[in-house]
Each structure stands twice: as structure tokens, then as C-alpha cells.
Amino acid sequence: MDPSELAIHTFTTKPWSITECIENYARAGIGGISIWRETVAGTDLRAVRHHLDDSGLRKVSLVRGGFFTGSTAAARAAALETNRQAIQDCAALGLPMLVMVCGATPGMSPAENFAQIRDGLGALAPFAADLGIKLAVEPLHPMYAADRSAIPTMKAANDLCDAVNHPLVGVALDVFHVWWDLDLEEQTRRCASAGRLFAYHICDWKQSMDDFLLDRGLPGEGVIPLRAIDTLVRSCGFTGLAEVEIFSRKWWSENQHHHLDTIISNCRRVYAP
Ligand code: ZN
Questions:
Q1: Residue 76: what are its φ and ψ, rounded to 5°?
Q2: 139 CA to middle of ligand 1, Å?
Q3: How far apart are CA 201 and CA 193, in angstroms?
Q4: Model confidence, pTM
Q5: Which of 35, 69, 130, 132 could lock onto 116 through a cystine, CB 3.0 to 4.6 A?
């Protein structure tokens, strides 16, 4: 895979400022960028947008909204307000899509969490549509089901999208979260045939992780059948960029130019035609 076919999530190179991300990705020939809210917190979004426009990078998504669940109505209303702000930031940056990590509240059942997510997403969709922003539900590996997301599979994401039934609500498929699922092919085809396969994130699953959040592997460092999933996603008609999203204390401690170069060389090797 050529770097022009990749987008990089700014959290992948967490030590870099948004300015460094834009300049260094563009210089390396990367195709696009997904911006984490943390990376642009406290910055002038209009200035960032101008920098992005001048960079030639494709603007892919803002990461992330969601966290709809809560044990009180006030908590859920506050979450909706945070999401409205994220959607406004997304529009201000000229990004077309907000990635949603849907949330889960410890002590609530999966069904209760799902219902609150459905209601929150349904309430948010018209607001996002007014600004032309797509909402991409990202299923998370079930190890995060207690407190990060009650949407653990592509099937659950598809069912959620069916329940909300809005043309700007779709799915972000992240190989880290869904590679293990025996229903992955069937549910990815279901998603794409409904016009809902909005985004595609790549990294790798290291067989021995020292942290379930912050020790993701670069493509080629782990066990995910990356080429097979890429073939599946492309055969479904997905034409977007493959977004490299890696949280790794190990790689953040390295020189970030070396980190980016290694991502590029690994992707060339792993996805070689
Ligand atoms: Zn992701």
C-alpha cells in the first residue's frame, strides 16, 4: 500500500502538535489525516483548517464523539451537548465525519447501554445532518464493553444503524476491534450493502500486549489477517483511505519520524500487491 492510500490519526504520533502532524504527514506523502480532539484542544480551529487546506491532505474524520450512556438523564444530556460541540468542531475543521465510541456505563446491562446509545445517536443525527457531518459508529473489542462501548461487533453496529436509520449514520471498521469475529465477512458485507461502511482503521494485535489500550502494534507486528480484511473491505466497494490508528507507549517514546517511516514501510510490505 502506497502512503498516498493511508490516512494517519494524529494520536498515532501523539508527541507531535497538529502543526507537526500536518507538515510531517504531507512531507511523507501520506494521503490524509484524521484529527483527534485532544490534538487540537486549545488551538485556533480556523487556522488549523487553513493549514489543512494548504497541505493537500485529505480530511477524513474527527475522533471522537459518543459516550452516550449514563445513569442519569442529566449525564446523558451533558453527553449530547459534548457531542454537539464535537460536531461543530468537525464542521469548523472542514472534516466530513465524526467517529463515535458509543459508551457503556458500569453496572448497566448491555441492553440498557444499547438502548441509551440508540436514543442518543438518534437525537444527535439531525443536528449532525444540518452541518453535513457523517457519524461513524466504531464497534470496540468486547474487552472494552464495561466502560467504553456496548457496541462490540459489526453486527451490533449494523443493528444500531438499522435502529437509528439515518443516511448519515454508518460504521467505522477498525481491524483491532473486529478481526477475531467469525461473522466479520457477513456483517461487513451487510454494512457495505446498506451504504454504511464509512471508515476503515488499521493497526495490529500483538499476541502479548502489556496494555490493552496503549500497546497496539504497527501493521505487521501482530496476528491480524490484515491483507484478507483489506481484500474484504475493498471487495465491498470501500474506496476510502486506510486510516492508521495506533496507541502505543512504546512507539510514542521513539523518534516520531522513525515511527512514521516504519508505518509506511510496514504498510508497503504487509499490503504489497
Ligand atoms: Zn479506530
A1: -70, -35
A2: 8
A3: 19
A4: 0.98
A5: 69
Q: Ligand 1 centroid to 34 CA: how many Å?
A: 10
Ligand 1 centre from 245 Cα, in Å? 6
Residue whose C-alpha cell is 516520531: 256
To 10 degrees, the CA torsion angle through 83, 161, 172, 183?
150
Sequence-distant (6+) residues with CB within 8 A of 70 are 76, 78, 79, 103, 105, 116
Ligand 1 mean position, distance from CA 242 (Å) = 11
Q: SS3 sequence, 61-78?
A: EEEEEECCCCCCHHHHHH
Instruction: Give the dihedral sign, CA 145/83/8/166.
Output: positive
Q: Ligand 1 center to residue 157 CA distance, Å?
A: 14
User: What's the CA-to-centroid distance between 203 and ligand 1, angstroms?
Assistant: 9
148: number of Cβ within 10 Å: 18
Can you spell out the DSSP letters for 141-171? -GGGTTTTBS--SHHHHHHHHHHH--TTEEE
User: CA 204, CA 64: separation in Å to the nearest integer?
Assistant: 20
Ligand 1 centre to CA of 136 (Å) is 10
The set of residues, in sequence order, having a beta carbon less than 8 Å from that of 222 and lying 6+ positions away, is 204, 205, 206, 207
